[in-house]
Amino acid sequence: MAHQLTFFESHHKVIPCIGVLVPLVSMAQIQGMSASKILNGTGLTYDDLLNHDLTVSFDQIETCFENIFSQLPYNEISFQVGKQYFYQNHTPIKTALLNARNLNQAIRIISRFSLIFFPFTKFDKFIVGKKTHFVVSHGVKQSSEHCERFFTEVMLSMLSTFFNWRFPEITITIELPFNQPKHFEQYFAYIKHPVTFSKPLFLISLDSDSLNIEQASACNLLRHQAMQSLQAYSKQSCLLSQLAKLIQNDPTTTLELAAHYFSLSPATLKRKLRLHNTNFKYEKDLALKHLTVFDLMHNAASNQALSDKLAISDLTNFRRMFKRWTGKTPNELRLAK
């Protein structure tokens, strides 16, 4: 069935500038970089950023980051931007989160208003036994490795600041799908939770019971006021996130079926994906990899069960596909757990 869906793309100006762009520009200026160099190629001026209601595109934020990355040594800017989010960002989404009854409610708010909170990543929730896991992936566009690392660090710093401030009794564990970086000590300085590197997935885990712990000093009235203000904001998600969800719900999805779902022609969908530095095959592999690796590592799923879930009749083809995704066979990954 075709759907009249609304989604945003990397060039759409729908992201509030106050969340990431303003503190990013501010941090780079503190380190001596001029606003004109930071904003070069974005079509923005410093005066534009004085507008509290300004919305910008992912492409504009990415361009600013690349400008900064080319001029300044890699340092803790990403972690500082994330830390500032809750301390200096006075917005309805912040008020709503700081006054959520518990983590369950906070997660629902983040999911509903991800465009306002942090649209650069998406979270897939899984519950296994007494644990709740969130598989995290970059959602808007396939960017450079250092740009994706930047958004990862901003998001982790945001979450760590939130937990340390509002839920200090809760510990989360973080697994990252890249090798330990040279500046790894900053992870332990800013993220007060266990972090491990070189894992097959970007995974955040915590005890399910902790989701119901009441947030200290939460105010229902302030949360209700904030939620009223948030109703005016768009609740749409990005193209790549919606495509991944479609594929995970039906692993047999083809380019043609996906295009029909989005009420687009296959050629138009291919063009849109190309503008996001990706293609349908890559996005399908990525979406199915997340599901399959999680089931193998945390649900102890057999090769046959995983193959059936992906609608693959030949186990040899499944093992070959799995190795293409991860660089390891299913059994090798089980042994490396």
Automatic annotation (TrEMBL):
SMART domains linked: HTH_ARAC (SM00342)
GO molecular function: DNA-binding transcription factor activity; transcription cis-regulatory region binding
Keywords, comma-separated and alphabetical: DNA-binding
Gene3D superfamilies referenced in this protein's UniProt entry, alphabetically: Homeodomain-like
DNA-binding among keywords: yes
Pfam families named in the record: Arabinose_bd
Record-linked InterPro entries: AraC-type_N (IPR032687), HTH_AraC (IPR018060)
Protein known as: HTH araC/xylS-type domain-containing protein
Species in which this protein is naturally found: Pseudoalteromonas piratica
Taxonomic classification: Bacteria, Pseudomonadati, Pseudomonadota, Gammaproteobacteria, Alteromonadales
